[in-house]
Amino acid sequence: MKGYQFEDTQGTFHLKKAENISYLYFPIAGEAGLKSSLTPNLGGDAKIDQNTFLLEPVSAENLVNNRNSRNFWCNVKGIGSWSLTGNAAEALSKKFTEMQDDSEVTAGFMWQKTTRESKKYQLRGEILSFIPVEKNVEVMLVTITNTGRMAQTVTPTAAIPLYGRSADNIRDHRHVTSLLHRIETTDIGVLVTPTLSFDERGHQVNHMTYYCVGWSGNGEKPVDFYPTAEDFVGEGGNFERPYAIVKNAEGVKAGTRIEGLEAVGGLHFSEVTLEPEEECSYLIFTGITEDIQEIRNLSKTYTTREMVLEELEKTKAYWQEKVNVAYHTGDSDFNQFMHWVSFQPILRRIYGCSFLPHHDYGKGGRGWRDLWQDCLALLIMNPDGVRQMLLDNFAGVRVDGSNATIIGSKQGEFVADRNHITRVWMDHGVWPMITTKFYIDQTGDLELLEKEAAYFKDKQIARGTRTDTLWDESYGCWQKTKRGVREEGTILEHLLLQNLTAFYEVGEHNNIRLRGADWNDALDMASEKGESVAFSNAYAGNLADIAELLEAYRKKTGKETVSLLAEIVSLLEDNPALYDSVEKKLHVLEEYLHACEHDTSGEKVEISIEKLTENLRHKSEWLMEHIRKNEWVKDSEESGWFNGYYDNHGRQVEGDTKTGVRMMLTGQVFPIMAGTATDEQIRQITKSADRYLYDEKVGGYRLNTDFGEVKTDLGRMFGFSYGDKENGAVFSHMAVMYANALYKRGFAKEGYKSLHALYRQSANFEVSRIYPGIPEYFNGRGRGMYHYLTGAASWYMLTVITEMFGVRGQVGDMILEPKLLKEQFDEEKKASLTLQFADKNWKITYLNREEKDYGEYQIADVTVDGEKINFVPKQHEAILPKNMIEKLSGNETHQIEVVLAQGNITL
């Protein structure tokens, strides 16, 4: 079928007969807490959190199987009953035939409109859905139009099943919790206020009311109501052919109270006669509140159709303003694709990683890794407040270098683990440094390193290997000193502890232990002897980056020392003989962990910045050289790549084995990104990746080759079908990071290949079957899975802006280093980027009049607001110093024009 089409430059798109595609869903949400998902037939759910679901919780399979979705019916006099959503037995029987209704979905940021037209009923129905930014209410604006030549009499009915309890009750006590329901009809709708809430917190008095209310566009209230599923469906009926609709049955009146049944927001309106082309409208509101008066206020706030449409425009404007980045290349569809990719980090901030149908794991919130990676996008689009967010986030680090893994509902609130399992992901120390460096480069705020934050504390100590028997909840969640004072350390100290403790926690091959898993959560069965060479590279890169920031900090502030926790001195021994010895490294780590396993000394020592910088560089260089020497593998074609892992038997995982070539993408990303891989090794890696991992049919670079076994000494991923999720799918996040690493090292064509393959697959609707944006992964059939809520969006956006367009910060200076390919420029030989940098708005336009490819051009001229400037020149980049930027006005969009001309770049 033909895919969606974009309508404007703001990401609005439409798709005909979208209901013929299974598993499609669309997010609408507000800032107050309500989060919904909508299918083309208005299936999906709505909730505030795990314990507060307005509609029945759904996972992906429910989208194609559930009958009890949102619906709006018209009983057409003399003909029958028609569903404006297509959720009717009659409509489903005609699906995929010429008798199927004509339908179309149109959508933009946080709003969806479905249109359906029936030849049999001579009616057109339109349902516009959105959630106002500051209200926990889902709005449906329903419009019915007579498309026939004769007058028709219809009786409209809204029918929305109200679930009204915790997701835990979908199976556990489903019937028993319905007995808690207290259902009431008012003059405008149906209210459900359960007496108690049964969930993992225990039996608690409930204060939430779940409701469905509505009125016609001219203010007419429902005549009666169908408030229970039992009476609405009727004996032998179902939600696709409900007795009440088929019989146009009389409902109950306002003021009716019913206890102990499943509820429906059934609003039965009076019949209306429509002349040809005449229309009528209905305003339906479903929501959650603790204040009943809020429900009554809706009738004043949204009295008419016009008032609802006015609120819709405010909602559209709000979300469009959040995405203050715009892209212009020669591919207009790619520009719009990037508009949606840039919106996805905002969706993940709201939904976490749990509250859309494919994300049917977990109970809400974001994990540690998500927190830091989402900040990357925020630093580009909405940098205000990110500094405080970083400071608050660092308080989740433990003094042993590990961290809380779950973020609470409030900023700076942490939980040890969602399921109270003691577990350490060995990559968690990597991400705060990556985000902090990006923040400092974008802002020049080196002083952040000297700001202080607390340390998280619970019973888990010694990097998750022991329990603190002296700790209980009365101690609190913050690390204390022996004097009982809360321990606080600089951001630099937090970064050092995360990266130094990891450096010493090694396996028998002297790479950092895998522990519970790394970025790939499914490598979770090698906790004793597993090692992650992949992320050992990342830590090596971090150590070098900390050293670089320290040098810049010393130069800017003039300070020669930094104050650090006294216990950290043991981790700062600088001795190659120590680094070579697994036993000695583990001894150093154990000494440190023992010294601070309950309380810290509270003592600080002054450390020379010069010596600390040298120390960190030595550790980084040793680790990189160790990996180059021991982890490079080759195949029979004399092509090579890096081994990324050791399994729980202590065996090297990758290479040309008896059972075939074993290669993993993650193990190539971080040696390239960190600088471990030489340029020649990168050339070999890209050849190997193209040979063994690249599959154009499913979106580009797979995460791994087929190992052909259920490898229970490495991770559960090998139990998955090959080509799905972590086992050999095209996993967008790592494919994007592969591109990012290649761009960083000057391999732009190779990096573009990975990015473009993901875009092409995402946009190939006939195969990917997803709306605009990037999914978590593409399965073995090329279908996009786990859409919207993926860290790949932040990294894709970051890579396009800072590497492809080459606009990035360097300790506050603006760097312009385009790596655009010739094919990416438009017909006028231009490509442009609009964004914020240093609290100012910019439009940066590259002119490639000579039509040169990357590697063939260099920057010839730079003008700012029409005036040619003396930029700091390098062979392939221009630097706009921070002091120059600060002199410019902050009230306008500054125009930068960069002329590219002949000039070879040495790679």
From TrEMBL:
A GO molecular-function annotation: glycosyltransferase activity
InterPro entries per record: 6-hairpin_glycosidase_sf, 6hp_glycosidase-like_sf, Gal_mutarotase_sf_dom, GH65_N, GH94_catalytic, GH94_Enzymes, Glyco_hydrolase_94_b-supersand
Any one of the GO BP annotations: carbohydrate metabolic process
Residue ranges occupied by any Glycosyl hydrolase 94 catalytic domain in the UniProt entry: 318-459, 613-804
Pfam families in UniProt: GH94_b-supersand, Glyco_hydro_94
Keywords: Glycosyltransferase, Transferase
Domain Glycosyl hydrolase 94 supersandwich: 100-304
Statement: the UniProt record of this protein carries the keyword DNA-binding: no
PANTHER family: CELLOBIONIC ACID PHOSPHORYLASE, CELLOBIONIC ACID PHOSPHORYLASE-RELATED
Name of the featured protein: Glycosyltransferase family 36
Lineage: Bacteria, Bacillati, Bacillota, Clostridia, Lachnospirales
